[in-house]
Amino acid sequence: MSGGVDSAVAAARAVADGHDVTGVHLALSSNPQTFRSGARGCCTLEDSRDARRAADVIGIPFYVWDMAERFREDVVDDFVAEYAAGRTPNPCLRCNEKIKFAAVLDRAVALGFDAVVTGHHARLADGVLRRSVDLGKDQSYVLAVLNAAQLSRAVFPLGDSTKDEVRAEAARRDLAVADKPDSHDICFIADGDTQGFLNQRLGSKTGDIVDAASGEVLGSHSGAHQFTIGQRHGLGIGRPAADGKPRYVLSITPVDNTVKVGPREALDVHVVHADRPVWLDGVEREGPFECQVQLRAHGEVHDATVTSDGDTITARLHSPAKGVAAGQALVVYQPDPEGDIVLASATIARTEALAPADV
């Protein structure tokens, strides 16, 4: 129970379905005051109190589990290391994989519980994970790292409801979090300043900002970790391109601390290569097969032809995507009238832009 409305209603529905439910809040920092306080964060002292009050109203036991060390190692340290390597990670995805459905699930099973229930907006039935009916709140993308064994012990009660319906139900149940705003920020970055957070841990190192086409040095920066693919603002170049159009980050090379920039059309990606694949039902599809892929949380969906060799998944997009960053997840969906089915996920390693004749 995070302290938000979704997990509170998920717990209430689990009780209503006849389950023996215990509420658990995760303490993810050894010093909670360093995490964001106020309504827009998560994992704060305020959230712990909100979760406890919700458990009291629902009428279930409530505990706080200390996962701070595991969270730091598996989520925070991974986040910093990925940026240092020139990639753009998704910490929520890693938290689901390493904390909520690994560390928490392992402890729950050891204590005799059958499953972990969360307030994620996704549908799960008979081991098949589908998008939520509320596509605007769908969280199947960040759950696509779960394997068949983890899904067999997961319950997502909210997948058949919209967020408005969840809030209305919370109000009917007299849960004080009914109107609590959603959390949008990275919970372990107290002030929302991701660049400042990374600077503190990775330090400053001057490097060049280079025009990708001409090789001309356009400016300098104090650390390649401050950038992500597709970024437009904050480049600090100080002079416009010859055609007057904006420049975007096209590539990041940590080895020589170089950031290359260019026009928006140079962000086009036609082929995405991803490694460490997870097939949610445990059955690999070698392909090629037609499907849809999503390349970032809440990003657009692309029709694609997918192949797999066991170690990698390759998606050839039917229309180009822009600004695809290594470190994000490639999630494979099978379109279905009853709700798109999540087939697999993998971590984006590299991308290709094809010549017009090869598209």
Automatic annotation (TrEMBL):
Positions of region (Interaction with tRNA): 137-139
Active-site residues, as the UniProt record annotates them: 95, 187
Gene Ontology CC, one term: cytoplasm
Residues holding ATP: 26, 119
Domain spans labelled tRNA-specific 2-thiouridylase MnmA-like C-terminal: 272-348
InterPro entries attached to this UniProt entry: MnmA-like (IPR004506), MnmA-like_C (IPR046885), MnmA-like_central (IPR046884), MnmA-like_central_sf (IPR023382), Rossmann-like_a/b/a_fold (IPR014729)
Localization terms from the record: Cytoplasm
Transferase in keyword set: yes
Known role: Catalyzes the 2-thiolation of uridine at the wobble position (U34) of tRNA, leading to the formation of s(2)U34.
HAMAP family linked to this entry: tRNA_thiouridyl_MnmA
Family: Belongs to the MnmA/TRMU family.
Name of this protein: tRNA-specific 2-thiouridylase MnmA
Species this chain originates from: Stackebrandtia nassauensis (strain DSM 44728 / CIP 108903 / NRRL B-16338 / NBRC 102104 / LLR-40K-21)
Encoding gene, per UniProt annotation: mnmA
